[in-house]
């Protein structure tokens, strides 16, 4: 049987084991974070996939068979009276459905006659506390699950850990020690004043604090706890997990209040989705939810595998960092002829979406990363940001990876495929600015969210319209008829009507977005805003003189020349004239009115964070600026409001620390 396993698979497995063990030792034992916990989870997930497919490759020393890490030699080693376990991970709704089916099969339950309890998974350091007759006698880290580290004196400095319980019982409990986000900010401010290295994340400080040889450091850092499980109890165990949490609270432990009783998988998934949105509102880090069969008797029946409980699972939130491999590198031609290298990846799920491509930006970035075809890389995606390759996991190289060489010609550039890189510029460009690749990219840009935002008019539809010669110029989009669309393949009456309705809805546009849509060289979103705010009408923009343009803050001489040259072209001026026959440009308040406060949001500065549901971030920015406000990318004391959408992130937390008002999307819409 072993001979049927590909040699490459065996080699990959051994590399993964070595690499995971290296990073795992650094993370759990040395409290270092050379790789994110999400990226490490991704490597472990790949390892488990191989071992699941080829179970004969599973060995006792595999990272998949371990729990935690070895104790530090600086602390006294103590054996756990009750073995410590870690939960298996679920990453998708399918994973959690499979878990439910496994539980039912093991219990031989035909209909759901049991329940689940969902608890938040706190990202901190696990601690095991032992009490005799209600008095704290031992505190230990998890270690390798069988032997931990005696950290009793340090844990006694944690204010939320009771030294004496409310009842005289013998009990061993498990929980998480964590550092709050506000406390994390406070500690880093202290580090800055001392001109010492700042802490990487709250989890590292929590782990490092409990492992300090000087207990006074713990007191200074103010860690906190949540206790969530009973490992041993000298009295009758509570009937359910929910009752167990209530008992812990009664005894005097701090218990996270956000646990929830669930009857079925549908309710579990709803809880999981709810906390994906709400997690950033809490002061502690949450990286998923823990699901347990609620009934204690059924937990005991289900028992454990060699390394994890069968009755529970950790349902992780979508990772923002994962690992994958580069299968190929191709090129994308932009609307201005800029050539962008694109990595084709082994598809991987990151931040809730399946990703198979990531930009490599330019030739210099490829050289900086030393990225090669075949490499294992760390991929990052935050919110709605484009996936980005952060680093290469060089430990997994086999020698078969192919270094990437920049070509001298690219066919898509048209003509002889010539490309050029101007001195001082990071990007290569097509010499021929009239190639079909550039032409269609300009159409993609024109219909995109940054410009006219024509819903449903994506690259595939644009390609179809260009291929069948239905459009030649931007204004042709607004002249499309129903019969034009029905004559195209795969277009039915409903889809044709939907597209025409979307085109009709896009006929009203802000001045800044109109300028963006034209693909004027050197003019992006911010510059378009500067031009719109200064001139307030397209007539004044196209008639502007170079001397006036170069004096505008944010424009300058290079952009000014590009704008003058573009509008000096007869074809471009004619295009603007034809577009104005179809579209209406929304009025913008003159600068004088905005500065005197006569406009609704005059003098107000907004910061947007997270994903907005009822409008895109670009639409929100445009609306703020149209009403006289301004938009910033960073939060400061000068910020008037932070608008927090779904998964808002650190900007929302910083706003609270600076006492800057945070608006929900609904509150923001009411303000508008």
UniProtKB/TrEMBL annotation:
It catalyses: NAD(+) + (deoxyribonucleotide)n-3'-hydroxyl + 5'-phospho-(deoxyribonucleotide)m = (deoxyribonucleotide)n+m + AMP + beta-nicotinamide D-nucleotide. NAD(+) binds at residues 86-87, 119, 142, 176, 292, 316. GO terms for molecular function: DNA binding; DNA ligase (NAD+) activity; metal ion binding. The keyword Metal-binding applies. GO terms for cellular component: cytosol. Zn(2+) binds at residue 413. The active site is at 121 (n6-amp-lysine intermediate). GO terms for biological process: DNA repair; DNA replication. InterPro entries: BRCT_dom, BRCT_dom_sf, DisA/LigA_HHH, DNA_ligase, DNA_ligase_CS, DNAligase_adenylation, DNAligase_N, Hlx-hairpin-Hlx_DNA-bd_motif. Keywords: DNA damage, DNA repair, DNA replication, Ligase, Magnesium, Manganese, Metal-binding, NAD, Zinc. Residues 601-672 form the BRCT domain. Transmembrane segments: none annotated. Its EC number is 6.5.1.2. Its cofactor is Mg(2+); Mn(2+). DNA ligase that catalyzes the formation of phosphodiester linkages between 5'-phosphoryl and 3'-hydroxyl groups in double-stranded DNA using NAD as a coenzyme and as the energy source for the reaction. It is essential for DNA replication and repair of damaged DNA. HAMAP family: DNA_ligase_A. Belongs to the NAD-dependent DNA ligase family. LigA subfamily. This is DNA ligase. It comes from Candidatus Taylorbacteria bacterium RIFCSPLOWO2_01_FULL_48_100. The gene is ligA.
């Amino acid at each position: 049987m072993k001979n049927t396993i590909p040699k490459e698979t065996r080699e990959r497995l051994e590399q993964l084991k070595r690499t995971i063990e290296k990073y795992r030792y650094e993370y759990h034992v040395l409290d270092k974070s050379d790789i994110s916990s999400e990226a490490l989870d991704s490597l472990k997930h790949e390892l488990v996939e191989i071992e699941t497919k080829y179970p004969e490759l599973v060995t006792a020393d595999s990272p998949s068979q371990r729990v935690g890490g070895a104790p530090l030699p600086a602390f006294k080693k103590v054996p756990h009276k009750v073995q410590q376990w870690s939960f298996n991970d679920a990453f998708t709704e399918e994973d959690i459905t499979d878990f439910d089916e496994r539980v039912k099969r093991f219990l031989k339950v035909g209909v759901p006659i049991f329940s689940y309890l969902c608890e938040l998974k706190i990202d901190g350091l696990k601690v095991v506390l032992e009490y005799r007759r209600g008095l704290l006698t031992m505190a230990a880290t998890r270690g390798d699950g069988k032997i931990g580290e005696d950290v009793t004196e340090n844990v006694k400095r944690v204010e939320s850990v009771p030294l004496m319980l409310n009842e005289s019982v013998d009990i061993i409990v498990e929980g998480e020690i964590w550092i709050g986000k506000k406390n994390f900010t406070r500690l880093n401010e202290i580090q800055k004043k001392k001109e010492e290295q700042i802490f990487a994340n709250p989890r590292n400080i929590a782990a490092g604090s409990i492992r300090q040889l000087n207990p006074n450091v713990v007191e200074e850092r103010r860690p906190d706890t949540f206790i969530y499980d009973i490992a041993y109890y000298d009295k009758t165990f509570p009937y359910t997990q929910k009752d167990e949490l209530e008992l812990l609270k009664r005894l005097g432990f701090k218990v996270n209040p956000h646990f929830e009783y669930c009857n079925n998988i549908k309710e579990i998934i709803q809880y999981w989705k709810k906390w994906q949105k709400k997690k950033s509102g809490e002061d502690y880090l949450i990286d998923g939810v823990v699901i347990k069969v609620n009934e204690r008797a059924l937990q005991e029946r289900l028992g454990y595998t060699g390394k994890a409980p069968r009755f529970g699972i950790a349902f992780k939130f979508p990772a923002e960092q994962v690992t994958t491999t580069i299968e190929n590198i191709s090129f994308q031609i932009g609307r201005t002829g800029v050539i962008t290298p694109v990595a084709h990846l082994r598809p991987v799920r990151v931040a809730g979406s399946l990703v198979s491509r990531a930009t490599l930006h330019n030739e210099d970035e490829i050289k900086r990363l030393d990225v090669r075809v075949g490499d294992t890389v760390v991929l990052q995606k935050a919110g709605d940001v484009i996936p980005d390759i952060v680093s290469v996991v060089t430990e997994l190289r086999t020698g078969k990876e192919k270094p990437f060489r920049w070509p001298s010609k690219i066919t898509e550039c048209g003509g002889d495929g010539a490309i050029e890189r101007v001195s001082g510029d990071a990007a290569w460009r097509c010499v021929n600015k009239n190639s079909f690749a550039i032409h269609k990219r300009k159409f993609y840009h024109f219909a995109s969210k940054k410009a006219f935002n024509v819903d449903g008019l994506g690259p595939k539809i644009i390609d179809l319209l260009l291929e069948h010669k239905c459009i030649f110029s931007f204004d042709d989009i607004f002249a499309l008829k129903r019969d034009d669309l029905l004559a195209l393949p795969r277009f039915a009456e409903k889809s044709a009507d939907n597209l025409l309705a979307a085109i009709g809805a896009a006929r009203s546009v802000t001045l800044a977005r109109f300028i963006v849509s034209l693909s004027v060289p050197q003019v992006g979103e911010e510059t378009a805003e500067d031009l719109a705010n200064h001139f307030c009408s397209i007539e004044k923009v196209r008639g502007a003189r170079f001397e006036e343009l170069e004096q505008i803050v944010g424009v300058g001489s290079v952009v000014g020349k590009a704008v003058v040259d573009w509008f000096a072209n007869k074809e471009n001026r004619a295009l603007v004239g034809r577009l104005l026959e179809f579209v209406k440009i929304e009025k913008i308040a003159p600068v004088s009115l905005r500065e005197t406060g006569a406009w609704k949001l005059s003098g107000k500065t907004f910061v947007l964070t997270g994903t907005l549901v009822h409008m895109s971030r670009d639409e929100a920015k445009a609306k703020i600026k149209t009403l006289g406000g301004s938009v910033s990318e960073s939060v400061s004391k000068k910020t008037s409001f932070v608008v927090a959408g779904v998964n808002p992130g650190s900007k929302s937390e910083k706003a609270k620390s600076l006492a800057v008002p945070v608006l929900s999307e609904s509150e923001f819409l009411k303000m508008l």
